[in-house]
């Protein structure tokens, strides 16, 4: 009986291992690439914005590797999500609030 309960517990816990919470889900509007706040067409997220430029050494948005080379930039939006873009303005990911 104990073995059966252990097997059921393992199976049920592994069934939920791949579930993403709503706050982390890309289907949540706050995280969606279709949300204007997350679009690179929005000036705040644009690679043409000086705050996102790899030439701006004072920007806290530019992501640099260990050698100091720019690899992208991160922009917080009004919903508290941090969007991560490559240097061409392609959204690579996000950090939910």
Architecture blueprint of SSEs:
Elements: H1 2-15, E1 62-64, E2 70-76, E3 82-86, E4 91-95
Antiparallel strand pairs: 1-2, 2-3, 3-4
Low-confidence stretches: 1-9, 11-16
Structural class: alpha+beta
> If you average the pLDDT, what whole number results?
85
What about the largest sheet? 4 strands, antiparallel
The name of the CATH topology of the domain at 36-97 is Thrombin, subunit H
Strand order of the largest sheet: 1-2-3-4
| Overall geometric form | globular
Please describe what this structure looks like.
The protein is of the alpha+beta class. It has a domain at 36-97: Beta Barrel (Thrombin, subunit H). The protein contains one helix and four strands; from the N terminus they run αββββ. Strands 1-2-3-4 form a four-stranded antiparallel beta sheet, with no helix packed on it. A hairpin with a 5-residue loop joins β2 and β3 (82-86). The chain is globular and about 35 Å long. It starts with a helix and ends with a strand. Residues 1-9 and 11-16 have low confidence and may be disordered.
Task: Pick out its properties.
about 100 residues; alpha+beta; Thrombin, subunit H; four-stranded antiparallel sheet; about 15% helix; about 20% strand; globular; disordered N terminus
Structure in a nutshell:
By secondary structure, the protein is an alpha+beta fold. It has 1 helix and 4 strands; from the N terminus they run H-E-E-E-E.
């Amino acid at each position: 009986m104990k073995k059966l309960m252990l097997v059921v517990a393992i199976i049920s816990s592994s069934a939920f291992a791949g579930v993403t919470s709503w706050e982390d889900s890309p289907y949540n509007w706050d995280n969606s690439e279709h949300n204007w706040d997350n679009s690179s067409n929005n000036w705040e997220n644009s690679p043409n914005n000086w705050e996102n430029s790899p030439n701006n050494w004072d920007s806290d948005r530019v992501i640099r590797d260990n050698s100091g080379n720019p690899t992208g930039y991160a922009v917080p939006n009004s919903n508290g999500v941090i969007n991560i873009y490559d240097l061409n303005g392609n959204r690579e990911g996000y950090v939910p609030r």
